[in-house]
Amino acid sequence: MTAAISPQATAIPRVRACILGTAGHIDHGKSSLVKALTGTDPDRLPEEKARGMTIELGFARLLLPDEAGRPDALQVGIVDVPGHEKFVRTMVAGATGIDLALLVVAADDGVMPQTREHVDILSLLGVAKGLITLSKIDLVTPDRSAVVRSQLADLTSGTPLAAWPVVEVSARTGAGLDELRREITRQMSALPQRETAGVFRLAIDRVFAVHGRGTVVTGSVLSGRAAVGDALELMPPRLACKVREVQSHGASLRDVAAGQRAALNLTGLERESIARGMELATPGYLTPSRYLDASVRLIGPTRTTAGPARDKPLVSHQRVRVCMGTRDATAAAVVIGGNAIQPGKEGLVQLRFIENVVASHGQRFILRNENSQSTLGGGRIIRPASRRMRPRDTGERDALARAMSADSAARCEEAVRGDGFGPHHAASIACRAGIAPDEVPGLLEELRAAARLVALAPGREVHADVLAAVEIRALAWLKRHHVSNPLEPGIQRDRFIGWLDRRTDTGLGRIICSRLESARAITVRGPYVAHAEFRPALSAEDAALLEKLVTEISAAKFDPPAWAALATITPLSRQRARVLEEIARAEPRLVQFAPQQFISTAALDELKRVVQRLGRGRAFKLAEVRDALNASRRVVQPLLEHLDRIQFTRRVGDERVLTEKAT
Predict the structure, then answer these.
(1) What is the DSSP letter of 191?
(2) d(CA 300, CA 346)
(3) Is the CATH code 3.90.226.10 the one for domain 466-531?
(4) pTM of the full predicted structure?
């Protein structure tokens, strides 16, 4: 950040931009070649100058005419990466977001270990476009050049790099530089335009503070566009910030878009809260998670002139380094549906990280061994926000298959399933399904039309499969309870609703319980919930005793005996008396209106009719009900309190009025 944005600065015309990343073995002349092309030395640290090698990412800008000859119509942001084996993770960071790759191979050395590894990494990251330069051509004979070209043909066989043109150059003499510029122009002109209207993402590769300006981050813009004043989200810590200032290669701009290198001056964040490897994104798009599901392809077992075979499998639960974007993190790779993935083969894994990371569906990554000495393979993210799964769970494998579908509607539906009982946010669904956010509303409408989305409450929709799964679990729990407790009438309704709330969301348990009752999957008798198929396993003796109790209570009408008196009809142990009371609570012909006090359902219905007559258009008192029933206050008072509890009446001082439920 060198100057504040001015109205003149924002008027800079938009040119076509792309990002070119270098690759190749240490000391093969990558940085020298970049300097010869651009006039900018990408080595930016004193240690790099002293050692003569790139340690960190270096950046430079190359302006080229387009194929029509218009000057400076093409802007190439060059990311120079280290070639030393210790800094391969930095090379992967540099390859993030590039449009073209420039593989540099010194003609005097030929193919070297990091050449081979960088070719593997470019292939695994899906970098399909690029070119190869034979550097230091001034130091070798034509015969030597031919030998190295043969090595390259062997190395790149079977990879996208096999089709890349090879240009011979010398940074020292300038030989071949014009041809290299023309080839970059040709390839860049053929690239499809990047989508700049979608979600903004920038992978942070540098962060620093500028005196008087605050925090600045730099990185390659992976997608979308960000402008001065835009609200962004720092991920994975999920911290809000705003863009104060935008620059690209030292020029102040109003906005920056996909295909450009960018420096963003941010407000709302402290320098200490930001680290390389984090991302800036449109709010709500990325979801932090420790669990990512992915497809993986291992390198080898190939034998070429470039090096030995890779013959070790990836064993389940093996610790690996995951290089994704500009982040390098440790994870356990849990193989799904097996114990290992063999060299040269593909498989599914769950990556279990120590800390939260962020990714999107389809994002590529590199796997290295835990000590980062060699590249194992690479892959694509299938579910960027998963949960800890059982590796041999066939249901999970089916879900992964749906998430990998070529059909965007199927991927969207799987992302909605993944939301569970939570809200459905278009940006988050788009990230997890690998689609544009503006596609999501239409796809959700298709799910509603197909009855795949169920509205439980205003603004609360859930996928039909998710709802069915929790209902099946609830019914299975009821059945298990009935098997263990055949004499009990069921599970307390509040306990059943609480069980549902804990597995869905607070407030939804009551709604789902009502759905199950309406579907006649469960029965609700008093305070108990039972499976619709359940019948208490009463012995002949208990059934006869229950009938005797029902007869006694029904005959007593509005003067029912206390439970203690009922229990003396037949001598019972305390435990048997308690079981009998539970059975009575679930008996549809009886209603418990107070502790250890029951009334017949018929008598309660008569009480309701009396109260409706007395309360028609006015308030009434307890004494009026007592007189109408010719009953004692001792019984009438708890009966009216029961009507209050079930919201049939409402007490107002010493009087009561009917509720809407009663009228």
Answers:
(1) S
(2) 11
(3) no
(4) 0.77
